[in-house]
Specification:
The complex is a heterodimer of chains A (275) and B (273). By secondary structure, chain A is of the alpha+beta class. Helix content of chain A is 31%, strand content 33%. Chain A contains 6 helices and 12 strands. In chain A, strands 1, 2, 3, 4, 5 and 6 form a 6-stranded mixed beta sheet that branches. In chain A, strands 10-9-11-12 form a 4-stranded antiparallel beta sheet, with helices on both faces. In chain A, strands 7-8 form a two-stranded antiparallel sheet. In chain A, strand 5 and strand 6 form a beta hairpin. In chain A, helix 1 crosses helix 2. Chain B is built from 3 helices and 9 strands, in the order E-E-E-E-H-E-H-E-E-E-E-H. In chain B, a hairpin with a 2-residue loop joins strand 6 and strand 7. The chains are: A alpha+beta (275), B alpha+beta (273).
Chain lengths: 275, 273
């Protein structure tokens, strides 16, 4: 039996053989992310955009800003509306039509990340209190589904938000209509940096970071940790294998390292665009 | 408006800030008297183009195309079994889905496919079908998905080119590649590969000749697989535009061949290793 047949016929055994040596079939260590590539401001029709590649996994985020009336209970707050699209384009397992369960869960997760990390102060989206606020439609489009789309989505959203430049709006006092000045654009202030890292649990005890689609299918559990700078923001472990506390602590440490890596990557990318 | 419960909802109503811009877009001349367009091109010039195949790892075949600022990605899956209970056919089936990303145009687009996107899906399908050897995959179907990431004009033409490259990358047997190209006819000028500002707009045109033309051209068979024209065009002009279109397609053809050639080379190198 050749190695390729073995991989297809007995994938779990195949992985076990590698993991015994603390390495994965693609040559990565257990704590190693795939190569992360970031491109900011790639779609000029959007008010903010970013493309993230995590190995093969590709996610594009485009943000469109529109004007609307705020809710009565929160007259000073704008809106951020993140939606994840897992289109049939990115994987043979998705069908066209309305978003499936996985896409809905991911959209909700992105909303929670935005709300809990407070990366954008919703009051900074206010134009006139009780009358006019910004709504940021953040659409996350998966272009290639090769596992760990969550981490790619969080990074794409953060990078795209950092890229947002809103046109200035003034209110005409006579007509009370808003007037847009597209030439004067202001960047959106970002107050914190949520960074997510996802771990797959294999055989109930081995943890490795940034699973590919193949590894996600073999995993007995998935855990996602979102950090904001040096604080924990969100831990998401929807069931799966139980973990020991020290395993979880290891994950937290790795997540904080990742947070530093990502903020360096974003800074470098923004610098390279400015020049 | 029906609410979409499967997506995160925003406010009930929102408006694009573009609706309140102060300066009305000043009508500039589309072509200056010496035949130079707004972006510095001559009438018959194409925009800079970039094509790459094999961009989506999960797909059987895929392609990405950039034509100026127009950016399109396309993936091909199959041949796979027919999912819905469609009519039985001994011939293979081809399906196309054309979609603009919500952020791809100056105004935000909706998630659901609108009528323009459905229309383009059908046009794309009809442009590609004559080139595909459907009898090679009986009782199965090949699905083509096209996503426009940024629209700066000639989106349909670019997607025809892109989809045909993706089909070739997927190894689906075809008689020929299909090259898309569009033209804008403005007064007595024929503009190749129009940008979004140059594209056909029936409301703002009062000239005798105003319209647009899109063709799908099969270069080695020297046949046209699809042709659509919009607007009011004199027959002489339509003929001229068509010859210009074919000429422009022949300019694109080497770029496509080169891209396919290098992708096959890469694949061979990868399998040797």
């Amino acid at each position: 039996m050749t190695i390729f047949n073995f991989r297809t016929a007995r994938p779990v055994e195949y992985y076990r053989k590698y993991l015994e040596q603390d390495v994965r079939p693609d040559g990565r260590d257990l704590g190693e992310f795939r190569r992360t590539v970031l491109n900011i401001g790639c779609v000029t029709t959007a008010d903010g955009s970013a493309l993230v590649k995590l190995g093969n996994t590709t996610v594009m985020c485009g943000i469109k800003a529109e004007l609307c009336k705020p809710k009565t209970e929160t007259p000073k707050c704008g809106f951020i509306v993140p939606n994840v699209e897992l289109s049939p384009l990115c994987s043979p397992y998705f069908r066209s039509g309305p978003p499936g369960e996985q896409a809905q869960v991911m959209s909700q997760f992105m909303l929670e990340v935005v709300n809990h990390s407070k990366c954008v102060d919703l009051e900074s989206l206010c134009i006139t209190q009780g009358k006019l606020v910004w709504v940021l439609y953040c659409d996350l489009l998966c272009l290639d589904y090769d596992g760990n789309v969550t981490d790619a989505c969080v990074l794409a959203l953060l990078a795209a938000l950092k890229n947002v430049c809103l046109p200035t709006i003034s209110i005409n006092e006579e007509t009370e209509n808003p007037e847009t000045d597209l030439t004067k654009r202001v960047p959106l202030p970002i107050s914190s940096q949520p960074v997510s890292s996802t771990y797959a649990i294999f055989d109930d005890n081995i943890l490795f970071v940034d699973p590919t689609a193949e590894e996600e299918n073999l995993a007995t559990g998935i855990i996602t940790i979102v950090t904001t700078d040096d604080k924990l923001c969100l831990v998401h472990k929807p069931g799966g294998s139980p973990l020991r506390p020290e395993q979880l602590t290891n994950c937290f440490d790795r997540s904080f390292d990742r947070s530093k890596e990502i903020s360096r990557l974003i800074d470098e990318t923004i610098h390279s665009i400015d020049r | 408006m029906p609410t979409d419960t499967r997506r995160i909802g925003g406010p009930e109503e929102s408006f694009s800030p573009l609706a309140y811009t102060l300066t009305d877009s000043i009508k500039t001349l589309m072509v200056s008297s010496n035949g130079i367009r707004n972006d510095g091109r001559k009438c018959e010039d194409l925009r800079k183009m970039f094509i790459k195949t094999g961009v989506i790892s999960q797909a059987r075949g895929s392609a990405y195309i950039e034509q100026g600022e127009t950016k399109i990605i396309c993936s091909v899956y199959g041949p796979r079994e027919v999912v819905r209970k469609e009519e039985f056919s001994m011939k293979g089936q081809l399906t196309c889905e054309f979609k603009y990303a919500t952020f791809s145009c100056s105004y935000r687009r909706q998630h659901q496919q609108d009528s323009e996107e459905k229309d383009f899906s059908v046009q794309l399908l009809e442009a590609l079908e004559p080139a595909v050897c459907l009898h090679k995959f009986p009782k199965a179907q090949v699905n083509i998905f096209v996503e426009v990431l940024q629209n700066d004009g000639s989106a349909l033409a670019a997607s025809i080119t892109c989809a045909s490259m993706a089909l070739a990358d997927a190894g689906i047997e075809v008689y020929d590649l299909v090259i898309g190209c569009s033209m804008k006819i403005h007064e007595d000028k024929v503009l190749t590969d129009p940008t979004i500002n140059e594209e056909y707009d029936s409301q703002n045109s009062k000239q005798l000749n105003h319209g647009s033309l899109t063709i799908g051209f099969m270069p080695s068979l020297n046949q046209i697989s699809a042709i659509t024209s919009k607007g009011e065009i004199q027959i002489d002009f339509l003929k001229r535009a068509m010859t210009d279109c074919v000429e422009a397609c022949q300019k694109i053809y080497p770029a496509m061949q080169q891209s396919l050639h290098s992708s096959i080379k890469d694949k061979l190198n990868a399998s040797e290793r």
